[in-house]
Amino acid sequence: AHFLLQIRIEITCAANMATIKLKWNKEEFEVTIEEGSSVEVFKTQVWTLTSVPVERQKYLGFPGGMLKDTDDLMEKVKKLKPGAKIQLMGTPEGKELKVPQEKTVFEEDLTPEEKARIYKEKKVEIPPAGMKNLGNTCYMNATIQCLHKIKDLKVALDTYQQPAAEGRDIDSVLTSQLRTTNSQLLSTTDSIVPMQLVMALRQRFPRFGEMQNGAYMQQDADECLRGLLTTMAATLKGSSESSNKIDELFGYTLNSSLKCLECDEEPPQESAELNRVLICHLGTQTEPVSHIAQGVQLSLKEHIEKNSPVLGRNAQYEKTSSLGSLPSYMVVQFARFGYKGANDWAGTSAAKVKLTRKCAFSHTFDVFDLASPDLKKKLSVGRVKKKEAEDRDLEKAKAALDKSKSSSSSAPADVEMKDAEDVDMKPAGLEELDTGYYELIAIVSHKGRTADGGHYVGWTKNKKADGKELKDDQWVLFDDDEVQFVNWKDMTGIGTDLCGGKADTQIAYINIYKKVTVLADPGQTLGSADEKKEEPEKKEEEKTAA
Questions:
Q1: 3-state helix/strand/coil string of 323-341
Q2: 283, 352, 371, 541: least buried by Cβ within 10 Å?
Q3: Rg from Cα positions in the chain
Q4: What integer pLDDT is reported at residue 469 of this predicted model?
């Protein structure tokens, strides 16, 4: 770009000099030209006034064409007519065009990693990265994507340090590959190829490497999940030397009582064991289960036959169980696969068949009725607090609505969408109380009629509905390397209903829930609310007795 300098010339002639009035932009200058001055001297004078370097000055309007360094300047000036205009073209110092400090890069030239970084910085909403199917590995892809939703597990994997070569085993190798996959899913927008992870998984669990007709066989996502949890339990250290991160996140105590049904004199046998997965039975064809709570309750009661030390023979026992503690993340597996024996008459062989009957579930899961009496007492405190907090929030929302109606002329505030994991952030330093409620955050589903075939996909919760910008909960569907956003109503609607009932559509197989807690009052300990409640009753009883 050039600056155009228009010079309005007014010649004032003296005996041996001439004065030229210059006009540049909105400024005016007077240039005195003495007899014998050269073009170079004139250009130097103009440079001191306009900061246009001598080598950049180009003049138009002088008689005879462009002003040259060899021209007789005074003769040129004398030939100018009064009011003549001289144009100077040139760029002042400091106003030159500069090379951009950063090279312009187009989106199609960016790598997936660079796109992910830029999208994250600009807070652009795009679907997460998918995983390539490497030969019937959809069971693993769906499981990994659902585990990736658990923030506490991601942090544990990020901080994992693989042992030195002499102390390295297959568990540490598989955990290291899980850490690498976890990092890759966070750092790219493109699908990743988890080849090293698949190889480590098949080496640790040879069953997942079984082949048929030259191709890898379909495997069970539940077996994959349990195997991964077992592996990470051996490698990811917990908050103490004797604990591991997996049991701290997924482990819960199951209290059981085994009672002989044929001998009242035999005392019940009490036991407690640590579990990571809760089973939901689906009942029978004559007595089907219609809801997840009913199915889990059914799995906590069973009849077994064992030797009775009192009777000296085999007898029937009833085993009843209840939850003695609650995990941070509850894994519920629907018992959808079972074995069907061979039928010689029909010419069918034994196979692992799928139960497609419907078992309803919702965004939340209440385990209060599954808890032991001691745990119920603790949960009651948290449930009262949760109800009080919900009432306060309802009053605030009502007050805000009334206020917005009264000031409807004002501009509405922007709504900031938050990730489902970050919505209910708890302030540090206050005790969290269990409520018995869980929030659904991930689902592994299966489509097909047998466990040895079909297709697995994963679903994870992305955003909660706020009733304003987002009318329904937003989820992410991970179908191997194809990833898309979906709404909750589309997951439990006519076309697709993860609750079941249709054999050739995706049906939930594994649900992962996150525990819902509430904050205790500052200084309050567990049970203090019950104690305060009992005090008035106790005083009333004493008064009546007196």
A1: ECCCCCEEEEEECCEEEEC
A2: 541
A3: 39
A4: 81
Span of 39-48, 360-369, 455-464 with lowest mean pLDDT = 39-48
Burial code of 390-414, b = ≥16 C-beta within 10 A, e = fewer? eeeeeeeeeeeeeeeeeeeeeeeee
Q: How far apart are CA 188 and CA 185, in angstroms?
A: 6
CA distance readout (Å), 54 to 6, 9, 68, 131: 16, 20, 12, 64
Q: What's the pTM value of the predicted model, to 2 decimals?
A: 0.72
Phi/psi for 284 (5° steps) reads: -120, 175
Per residue in 249-306, pLDDT (tens digit) is 999 999 999 999 999 999 999 999 999 999 999 988 888 899 999 999 999 999 999 9
Would residue 432 be called left, alpha or beta, if left means φ above 0 and alpha means ψ between -120 and 50 degrees?
A: beta
> Tokens 């390295």 map to which residue?
168
Higher pLDDT pick, 157 / 341: 157
Reference 430, options 323, 521, 343; nearest CA is 521
**Owner of token pair 């209290």:** 255
Q: Which pLDDT does position 348 carry in this prediction?
A: 65
Q: Give the chain's largest Cα–Cα span.
A: 144
Report the SS3 class of residue 504: coil
148, 157, 451, 498, 500 from 357: Cα distances, Å: 29, 37, 15, 11, 6
- CA distances 302 to 38, 172, 258, 502, 535, Å, are 113, 38, 10, 28, 41
Helices and strands counted in the chain (H then E): 13, 22
- In DSSP terms, 317 is beta-bridged to 260, 304
- Angle at CA of residue 204, ends 279 and 510, nearest 5°: 20
Which residues are catalytically annotated? Answer: 138, 455
Distance CA 190, CA 194 (A): 13
- pLDDT above 90 covers a percentage of the chain that reads 50
pLDDT digits (tens, 9 = 90+) for 507-529: 999 999 999 999 887 555 444 44
Strand order in the sheet with 58-60: 3-8, 85-90, 58-60
In the prediction, which pLDDT does 257 show? Answer: 95
What was the pLDDT predicted at 78?
A: 79
- Average of per-residue pLDDT across 534-546: 47
Q: How far apart are CA 323 and CA 326, in angstroms?
A: 7
List Cβ neighbours of 103 (8 Å cut-off, separation of 6 or more): none
Strand partners, 20: 31
* Helix residue spans in 54-194 (DSSP H): 73-78, 112-122, 138-147, 151-158, 170-186
Cβ neighbours, 10 Å, residue 289 = 23
pLDDT of residue 279: 96
Task: Please check whether residue 314 is in contact with residue 306, taking contact to mean a CB–CB distance below 8 angstroms.
Answer: yes
Chain centroid to CA 66: how far? 69
Q: Which two tokens stand for residue 447?
A: 């489509």
pLDDT at 417 over 60: no
Q: Which residues pair with 13 in a beta bridge?
A: 18
Residue 170 has, within 13 A of its CA and on its CB side, a CA count of 12
